[in-house]
Design goal:
The complex is a heterodimer of chains A (192) and B (193). Chain A has 192 residues and is α+β, with helices and mostly antiparallel strands. Chain A has a domain of 128 residues: NADH Oxidase (3-Layer(aba) Sandwich), CATH 3.40.109.10. Helices cover 33% and strands 19% of the residues of chain A. Chain A has a 4-stranded antiparallel β-sheet, with helices on both faces. A two-stranded antiparallel ribbon of chain A has the order 3-4. The radius of gyration of chain A is 17 Å and the shape is globular. With 193 residues, chain B is of the alpha+beta class. In chain B, the strands form 2 sheets. In chain B, strands 1-2-6-5 form a 4-stranded antiparallel β-sheet, sandwiched between helices. A two-stranded antiparallel ribbon of chain B has the order 3-4. In chain B, strand 3 and strand 4 form a beta hairpin. In chain B, helix 3 runs antiparallel to helix 5. The mean pLDDT of chain B is 95. Classes of the chains: A alpha+beta (192), B alpha+beta (193). Chains A and B meet through helix 2, helix 3, strand 1, helix 5 and strand 7 of A and helix 2, helix 3, strand 1, helix 5 and strand 7 of B.
Chain lengths: 192, 193
């Protein structure tokens, strides 16, 4: 039988250099517990987004916040690809959007800056003991319609947030997917 | 106007509404760096942080070229910046952050988004170790690619200037003016649904 501790162990990266604990411990689980994210922690998680750097300080991001049990949580779930069904157990689903345009005109850094903002959020969440799993696999047209999201706001990612769940009592398919090490390319930089 | 580095750090200190971890709370993007060398150990750590970032389908669509502020390569990169980024010459290290637009011949729609996550990881790791970063977006990427002879599959998107924060009592007036402004951030970035 696989336990949550087994999974945490498998996900420990083999490091080539020291990095901070939150980056070391982070991974994207498919099993979340019922435990809620407390309000204070959630506020810090969103605050981390606010202080993310962005091109010309345009801050081209916006988040729709669906809390489990809330009225739109099911709607957000219904837009996800089938294989993301595990997201139903997350405490929060955030619909991360980039702003393709603002009063300064077209913004070519929207997606990039949203990526930075979500990483800040993820790191802050991890430091408070919460795990996150980002999903690009959802029906973007459907979510726009369901949540009435209009140009220049583009839904780009759904972030599941919560405490990690108990792996000893979940579908085998989720265990098969998560019981794998965090594989990375060996070389991603070059001195020139 | 004369302002010390400590005063700049104080001005730029974020007016946080809720507690944040140290590297997020302390981070800002200065326009003035010290010439202090960044140890190799630090370089290894920041790229390790970038390497472990999450990405769509675990494609890891990023690659980084870097150079120290000695020699021709550094000058070449600087020559691709617009005039307003003249401050970058004080950086200790410049990193050309590239995205990989295709994977196995298919377009990766999340490449820019994922590069953002990877660079953010790198910057938070650097900040944790006491090194500041400022990103430059509007450089001449075509020229950059030619001058540096980059792999054709790597698209430069931003350059990250990195170093210890500089001595602001000796900075050019124009940068002092820009950096002694507090960071203004939006207050409403979420909607509960």
């Amino acid at each position: 039988m696989i336990t949550t501790d087994n999974i945490l162990n498998v996900k420990k990266p083999k490091l080539k250099a020291e990095i901070i604990d939150v980056l070391k411990n982070r991974f994207s689980p498919r099993v979340f517990s019922d435990e809620e994210v407390n309000k204070k922690d959630f506020n810090s998680i969103i605050e981390a987004v606010r202080w993310t750097p962005s091109s010309s300080n345009r801050q081209p991001w916006f988040f729709y916040v669906a809390k489990k049990g809330g009225k739109e949580f099911e709607k957000v779930l219904s837009c996800l690809n089938k294989d993301n069904y595990w997201a139903k157990n997350a405490s929060y689903l955030l619909v991360g959007c980039y702003l393709d345009e603002d009063e300064k005109g077209k913004n070519n850094y929207g997606q990039y800056d949203l990526g930075q903002a979500v990483m800040s959020l993820v790191v802050q969440a991890q430091s408070l003991g919460y795990y996150t799993h980002q999903m690009g696999g959802f029906n973007k047209d459907m979510i726009k319609e369901v949540l009435v999201i209009k140009f220049p706001v583009f839904p780009w990612v759904v972030v599941a947030i919560g405490k990690i769940g108990d792996y000893s009592n979940v579908d085998q398919i989720l265990i098969d997917k998560d019981n794998k090490e965090r594989k990375r390319k060996e070389i991603i930089s070059q001195k020139i | 106007m004369k302002i010390t580095t400590q005063e700049i750090i104080k001005i730029r200190k974020q007016q946080v509404r809720y507690p944040l971890i140290q590297p997020i709370a302390d981070r800002f993007s200065p326009r003035h760096f010290s010439s202090e060398k960044i140890p190799n150990k630090v370089i290894d750590s920041i790229f390790e942080a970038a390497r472990l970032a999450p990405s769509g389908h675990n494609y890891q669509p990023w690659f980084f070229y870097w150079t120290r502020n000695t020699g021709r390569t550094f000058e070449k990169i600087i020559s691709c910046f617009p005039q307003s980024n003249y401050w970058a010459k004080t950086a200790s290290v410049l990193i050309v952050a590239c995205y990989l637009p295709t994977i196995d011949g298919k377009r990766d729609k999340y490449a820019l988004y994922d590069l953002g996550a990877s660079v953010m990881s790198l910057i938070l790791q650097a900040q944790h170790l006491g090194f500041y970063a400022r990103q430059i977006g509007n450089c001449d990427t075509k020229k950059l690619k030619e001058l540096l002879n980059l792999n054709k599959d790597h698209k430069p998107f931003v350059v990250v200037a990195l170093g210890k924060i500089g001595d602001y009592s000796k900075v050019e007036e124009i940068y002092l003016k820009k950096d002694s402004q507090p960071n203004i951030k939006k207050t409403d970035i979420t909607k509960n649904i």
